Amino acid sequence: MEEVAAVLGLSPGYVQSVATFYGMFHFRPVGRHVISVCDSISCALLGSETLVHYLEKKLGVAVGETTPDRRFTLREVECLGACDRAPSCSSTPPSTTISRRRRSTRFWSSTGERRPFLSTLLLVDTGRRRQTLVDYEAEGLRHAAARAGNHVARGCHAEEVKKSGLRGRGGASFPTGMKWGFLPKDYPGPRYLVCNADEGEPRNLQGPPILEWLPHRLIEGRHVSSAATPSAPWLAYIYIRGEYYDAMNAVNEALAEAYRRGYLGRSVMGKQFACDIYTHPGAGAYICGEETALLDSLEGKRGHPRVKPPFPAIAGLYARPTVINNVETLASLPLILEKGGDWFAAMGPNKSKGFRLFSVSGHVKHPGNFEVPLGTTFRQLIYDLAGGMRSDKPLKAFIPGGASAPIFTPEHLDLPLDFEAVAEAGSMLGSGAVIVMEEGTCMVWVAKKLSRFFRDESCGQCLPCREGTAWLNKILTRIEDGRGSLEELEILLDASSNMTARCICVLPDAAAGPVQSTLKYFRHEYEEHLRLGRCPFRNGDGRSPVADSAGKVAHSQEDGKHL
Amino acid sequence: MSTLETPTRTDLVNVTIDGHPMSAPKGTLVIDLCKQLGIDIPHYCYHPSLSIVASCRMCLVEVEKMPKLAPACQLVVQEGMVVRTHTDKVEKHRAAQMEFFLLNHPLDCPVCDKGGECRLQRYSMDYGSAFSRFSDDKRRYPKQNIGPLIDLEMNRCIHCTRCVRFSGEVAGEHELYMMERADRSYISTFMSRPVMGPLSGNVIELCPVGCLTDKVFRFSARVWELKQTPVSCAHCPAGCSLNLWSRRRQVHRVTPLGELEDNQNFICNKGRYLSNFSDHADRVDTPRIADASGRRPVSVEEALAAAAAALEKAKREHGPDGIAILADGRRTCEEYYLLSRLARAALGTANLDYRTELRHPSAGAAQAMLAARSSAEPGRPGSVVILGSDLYGEAPIAALEIKEQIRRKGGSLLIAHHRACPWFYQYAQAQLVYNPGQAADFIHALLKASQEYLDDAAAERAGLVPQHVRDLAALLPTLPGGTLLVGARSIDGPRAGETALAVLRLLERLKTWGDWEMRLVMPEANGRGAFEAGFLPADLSPAAGALSAAWGGEVNAAAGLSSPEIVAAALAGTVKTLVLVGEDCLAVLDGPTRDALVRKLETLITFSSFNPPASWPGIQFPIATRYEDEGATLDLWGREVSGKKAFDPPPRVLPLRELCLQLAARLGKKWNYASARDVTLDWKRLRPSLTKIGAPDLSAGATSGILASGELWWIVDPHLFGRDPLAHRSPACDLTAPRLKGQIHPATARALGLSKLGRLRVWNDSGEVVIPVEVTPLAAAGALYAPRNLVPLHPGGEYPARLKVECET
Predict the structure, then answer these.
(1) Domain co-membership, A160 together with A180
(2) pLDDT digits 0-9 by tens, B88-101
(3) Do A69 and A216 fall within a single domain?
(4) Which one of B54, B103, B182 has the shortest CB-CB distance to A455?
(5) Chain A residue closest in CA terms to B160
């Protein structure tokens, strides 16, 4: 660290401070292979705890330790972006994701017919490999860079996007066109466009397929958004989660292609338009998915969400005007331009326009990404597209929009995928990660798992979040173990409500959601835990209270042999 | 450091706070506005000197039309804003916050040194609950050791990051950091290295809870049992106001003066940790007369009678010029004033000086002239040029003041010295390093370059790249004005006169470009005060009339001998009676020479708080230390800092002020001072006259010597935390002492065959020693930086000093 500091001209303490903030730096020698087991809710639902126990036994080391022969280091991580293949774990080097299943290729159309999507919408079937620039152009979509200088006056872009009603696909669902509108109009200096590919929200796996297979669509999206806003040079960054090794490589290759073709660079397609794109890997911090924390991280700091104002549109990256868009948002742009804002707006109800990727994971038959027009119901998504429950057990609960979204029960299945309707029902569409849980899943355990995730991933800046997430996790861990008192359920509610709407970012609100909603719908389970003095779903062998995990163990063992 | 004033804004906006409509300047923070209104908004992370992080979430208030509670520390007043600070919602939030704060906070107030001045205690009295709903194990961190000065008790931390922000943003020392994230995060230093930065101690007051406490003070007293006294620091020319916390005659701790919370005054670790010297075993507690038969205690009267008789006899037999007074640089203005009155009016001698560090006879007059030309205007805005001074090493708080001014208000900072200061890197637009003793050549080259004459030879003589000098010369005329700070230590040696004249020429040139003023940075703690009290051998003839009118009778207003001249005269036997006031007045001499000097004297009269060397003869008076008497000092900027008496001196010890009066009375002078205040008033009345000194004759022409082979210039500038008479009598002296490492330029190191780190054998007439050195471009080429108070060698009388060196294998 001292040498890094000397090279960068920083104080060594600063380097240590930044490096220890992120999860992917090692401070002790690790084994030749680092085995990272995903510990987030989707994988946990499908038995990652069992996998960890198995590996611990097999390797003879606890999580975080290295085998004496320095061959293996075992660690738990948050989400490898492979929830469709849960439980997943990865081993480095080589940077392969080992999993029971291969990456899902099922992209199903909204009609429920099981046919791959055609190029009409965002996702195209590329046969699980990266779409090259040649393929991309063969699709008939002309590269926006080519158009940028030609006939589409800048600004028309923005109009078109506003018309489309496109809302950010990140989680906050802020209208994209409006976000661009906040940029100062005649700012002379450089401005930045940042693509947020650090959605570490467990079970949110729309990012990887776009990055891995369709990077050109993203690159074009960049062009559109940079052209949509007034002139002056643009610098764009794609901040990609450190865990997505393959995505990083794919994007870099695609960028090289685009540079070679002149779609990027000082003078795009020979026109007076400069656009450079850099990729930047994250280093394992969920909070860096928050846009201002991402900016701090990009600047080489600890990823702390910033106090606002100033908003990034005024003073973002390096205190310059900055637009931050999510991968999916940007990737949708070429289609909007190609087909027009009205086409996009025609899909979906009310204020929720267009189509969107939803990733369904958990106890469903076919976990994966599904692209549907907004307005489709959860029932269609879960039962028609994801193939329904994996066993005969009925659905018990589902999370409609990533770990930060309060939980839903079967009564909400007929809600449409509509930002407002979901919000009205007390949750949010958020990142579009639907996690399905079948009967027999312990909801206290789910809440505990989620609270642990938020405890670990809080940046530690604001008091209510830092202390509150840890407190919730302590209480939940105890209750799940059957220890505690009924009064503590009130403390849970009180503490979680004391955390909400008090902090710089919304992570504590997100952390409070699962606790409040599980208590709302499944209070009896909490009481049952306390009455029995143990988890009613555990079968006494210490395994995770996830139904039918025996089968998973067998699979995990097979995987273990490959190691 | 003075309070940083907020920029004046004329635009006002109308806001309503707690139902009271009012107008406030645009850009005011709600938390500041509330403080002015006397509305208490609880907060932890906000501090007026630090950047805003809004992370403790304690100061949230209700603002109309805002859906969420908003942090008052980040909220800027807007037209029509309606703020409520004490609604149910806010109160409930504060109670919830207190619960979160106390979840993992240990209940160890009874053994916590912050007790009584802890914000957590205060706000939990206001908002906290008496019962905890937290039934799990509290979070515990392993105990960390971050050095001997500051104790870090991480379990008490509330993660407000004030210390981290101070260490990086304000102190610029970048020592403390937040490590890890989430609830695992903790404050630490890189690999738990000790925190030793000269400004680091301020985190103790900045810490709103008991996480960072004073390791030297802790467990020795409860703060409410201690007496607080405002005093002025006796250590360096920054002249900070200190709050001395004492019990009986013991200084327990030192904090910056001002309210403890949100205090924007900072002090350095020297003032903080090394002010407890009054109680040292070396203290002289009774007057003594030492002669061939030994040292015997006498009464004050007896000693005074002996001293008066000796002085009268000396005056009678050898004339007043055979008497000289040397005082150290730490006296108060009143003491200097009485001493100069004693010398010039009662004894009739003009041989009096406080600049005991001076080496060359011509330097005294040169420095006095620059002091007289210094402006009297403190804290000028604009740019700052520091010439020939390592300000951060000499007076850290003065350096901090300049740095904060540049950081907050803009302006350029330009530095030229014989050693670069990395602390200023981030803020200084340019730092030039010239060869030791070659400041005159540097200024010469600079002035020539500004006239577009090329005199690269001068630049090269100064060891500089001519282009750098030209760049600087091109930059200076573009600046609107500011302050030229000149280090008095650089105005020494055979070229002192030439350098002083060059500085004045530079000042004249600067004045044609912009609104520039000059300040002399004297190394003495109260050098400015001594100068303005007339305690120097300058030609005071312009003020002769005023002086004799005020003092009555005959006054010797002529120029006298400066400190090196007095020493030389005493060695030559022309000065036969020497009065030494304070500690270590003959420090420029090595031991044998000093003893030889003392033996040559007819009479030696010493006034000191601590024992003079046992072998010294003469009449020895014990005097009160700085904190045992009241008195004013002047800081670097000429601002007056008044000090009160913190505790009584030992029984038979009188303040110097009192002894001066009694001695004058015995010499037949009736001075009408009823109280200490009268002396102050008298001095202030004469102060303008005393600073008018006649222009000395500064004949230029001498050249500095040339290095022989195997020799290096020795940069002797003392280290702030090295041994000095007061510091090494404080118990914490060993704790603050830095590990010595000399510094040497890479080119010089190569010539010596030294790699990155190594050891050098250095020697001169006074002895030989092996020191570790680091190779760094900070030092000038051909020079070795090795502070003289850390190297057990004596630099001799030459400036710049030189050393013979050899690479130690």
Answers:
(1) yes
(2) 999 999 999 999 99
(3) no
(4) B182
(5) A461
